[in-house]
């Protein structure tokens, strides 16, 4: 059985990204960046547990660790889901334009290829919510990692959105395209702002201005 992309080494994954191959691409890379962002949240939680100063947050931190692990696993799985969805799309583009079946096959392939990046975005929103809570309840000694995690999750959110827009622009079903794009726009507007607020709060605290 071929090794999943999510199970390769960092060196191999980056090498595959750089190579003249279609997958992994921006979607898979976004999923990995999002997983790294939420992993940083978990690291802060693990260092917070057991410290007397944060004992009153212990139940919350334990919950956040469970949620973070789940989000991280989902994002890693989405690396492979994104790659898997690309092959049918590449085959659909190769169908002659005069083939009467082309439009139906293309529409399904475009829709399927949009689902992994859409789910990447949803998971990145969950990660940003978690990082916002960790900023409040996690050890101040690792506050910079919370800020880094928020910025990584934001980058992954925006990266995944581009992989959706490039597909939805070709949908024949414009109503469905607009529905997906509306969700994408809403996530970007709400969660890039939230991620920026987390990073800004971290920066102010580090510089002693908050």
UniProtKB/TrEMBL annotation:
Q: Where is the Cyclodeaminase/cyclohydrolase domain?
A: 9-185
What keywords does the record list, in alphabetical order?
Membrane, Transmembrane, Transmembrane helix
Q: Record keywords: Membrane included?
A: yes
Q: Does the keyword Membrane apply?
A: yes
Task: Enumerate the transmembrane spans.
Answer: 29-49
Q: What is this protein called?
A: Cyclodeaminase/cyclohydrolase family protein
Which species?
A: Fusibacter paucivorans
């Amino acid at each position: 059985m071929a090794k999943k992309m999510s199970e390769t080494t960092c060196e191999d994954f980056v090498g595959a990204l750089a190579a003249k191959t279609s997958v992994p691409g921006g979607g898979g890379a976004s999923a990995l960046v999002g997983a790294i962002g939420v992993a940083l949240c978990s690291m802060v939680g693990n260092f917070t547990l057991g410290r007397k100063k944060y004992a009153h947050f212990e139940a919350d931190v334990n919950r956040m660790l469970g949620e973070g692990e789940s989000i991280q696993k989902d994002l890693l799985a989405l690396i492979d889901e994104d790659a898997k969805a690309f092959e049918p799309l590449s085959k659909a583009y190769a169908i002659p334009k005069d083939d009467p079946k082309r439009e139906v096959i293309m529409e399904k392939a475009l829709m399927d290829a949009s689902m992994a990046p859409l789910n990447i975005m949803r998971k990145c929103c969950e990660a940003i919510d978690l990082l916002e809570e960790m900023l409040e309840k996690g050890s101040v000694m690792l506050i910079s990692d919370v800020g880094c995690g928020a910025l990584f999750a934001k980058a992954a959110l925006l990266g995944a959105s581009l992989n959706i827009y490039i597909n939805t622009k070709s949908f024949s079903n414009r109503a469905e395209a607009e529905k997906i794009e509306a969700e994408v726009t809403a996530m970007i507007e709400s969660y890039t702002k939230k991620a920026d607020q987390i990073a800004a709060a971290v920066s102010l605290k580090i510089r002693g201005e908050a």
